[in-house]
Specification:
By secondary structure, the chain is an alpha+beta fold. It has 14 helices and 13 strands. A hairpin with a 2-residue loop joins strand 3 and strand 4. Helix 2 runs antiparallel to helix 10 and helix 10 packs parallel to helix 13. It is elongated.
Amino acid sequence: MIQWKKITALIRMSLRSLMLHKLRSLLTVLGLVLGVASVIIMLSIAEGAGLENQRRIESLGINNVVVRSVKPPQDDQQQQRQRLLEYGLTYDDMQRIGDTLPNVQQIAPFREFRHEARYLDRVTEARVVGVQPEYAPTNRIEIVQGRFIEPLDLEAKANVCVVGAELAVKLFRYESAVGKTVQIADRHRFQVIGVTGTKMSSAGIGSSLAAQDFNKDFYIPLTTDQKRIGEVLVRRTEGSRTAEKLELSQLTIRVTEPKHVKTTAAAIESLLALTHEKRDFEITIPLDLLERAKAQQQLQNFVLGSIAAISLLVGGIGIMNIMLATVSERTGEIGIRRALGAKKSDITLQFLVETLVLSASGAMIGAIVGLSTPPIISAITGRETVITFWGPCVAVCVALATGLIFGIYPARQAASLDPIEALRRV
């Protein structure tokens, strides 16, 4: 049966003993303080970075399959022989995928190229994207002013556009963008009908996905893109001239259910391989990327937690060292207690309680430091940090266990002292 009064008395005695040597006690628990704090801080930073990456992947849609055109490699002689480089996805590919695969719910095509966008004397580079109305919901794009491209715009091949949030600020400053006219490539003029909200960039998500900063996009109807700009893009650079024919840059294919995503992606790859011998396309499955990101996050948490746990190990060694010194200093006290009838178990319990008081003090201080630091890091760096419930719990429990394990040996050393030899040091 647990004797709570006895344990309470031992805790009070331990606190008095530790307060007699405040600086030594503080230095002893410093290792545990740093260990617990570093575990919490490192895990919160890793968790925040992992969640940010997962949100980027989820923004692509876990029900989606992304098929992107890729320029096939060519040597210099081949480029000279071939004046027009034709590659990538086509409207026929899109039609074939929609007609053949039963689990395809929606296909959002687009074609992109980079050009200067001009309004008055303000000029900035933009990613011009020819889209259909399905592009916005498929890519989770929010409209904060005006509206997005609609079916009537496609039918009329209208000269209208929707601008990204950052592009709107650069071109129009703090004016309302809707109704203004923007000039593209010094030739084409488009009337702004909407402005998108700020959206996280997809840079770094998947090897087959190009970096997409949606905030700098300039959206026009896909039919207008075909009519005004055409399928052949001519690039002039320092005396050379290259022409490329690209019908579609990317297809974002929404599947009915997540369980059909991987099988549908495999079917799309087989279907495209029949007509694309040059392998001028790449397929990315956001669901696969999300699963890999979660697995990588778990591994990263384990590695960072293991590195931070070394501080706890060092702290435990420090506690054992100071408790061995304490046993040596209090040999006379131990002899008197044994002479007055104290058992070995009483001596062992006394020193274990002192060890646990030290460990608990270090764990609590470390937890306070660890929980208060991540918000400061977020405020300074702007990066998200996430404190999970299990992070502080694991850190504190490991700290207490470390202190207890490293305190057993000094406690047994104290209990095994010969009472007569101990009394001689009084």
